What we know:
Layout: H1 3-9, H2 12-21, H3 39-46, H4 49-57, H5 72-79, H6 82-91, H7 94-99, H8 105-111, H9 115-124, H10 140-164
Helix pairs in contact: 1-3, 2-4, 3-4, 3-5, 5-6, 5-8, 8-9, 8-10
GO biological process, one term: negative regulation of DNA replication
ANK repeats: 35-67
Pfam families: Ank_2
Amino acid sequence: MSALSCVTENDILSLRIICKIEANQQYKIEEVDKYGNTALLKSCYLGRLECALILLEFGANIYAVNYFGQNALTLASYCGNMQLVLELLHRRSYQDFNLSSLLPAVCVASMRQHKVLVKYFMNLDPIGTPNLRTVHGLGLNDMGQMVKRKLRNLSQKKMINNAIN
């Protein structure tokens, strides 16, 4: 059993035990999966607040970035877990997280249509946030337009399929 499998199973008790015996080097909380996710990154992606809190308590690397250039804040924004986002930002600044990710957290929140998170991030950095760009050069407005287009296309496809059937 590893920290990664505990997070996958949401097995908080085993995770706490593994973190305590980490000093024995039998288990590693910084082990990565095939995507480069540590247990902390995976807990953020899955929105597992309690797992993330345990990992942070035992010194999990909050600066970890997976093979896709995603960090803990980016992944917590993906799942839309506001409590997890707040906990992460209590330990590291919003601007610092954005500097270490290929895709700023606000852009992820915008793509996933987590409006509360988008508003929160914009309030954290009202001047810098509108100027943030993804590694591809897309800004916050570009992301919103892209999502709206995708939703419109899906809606049109559904209407066509309903008309055919």
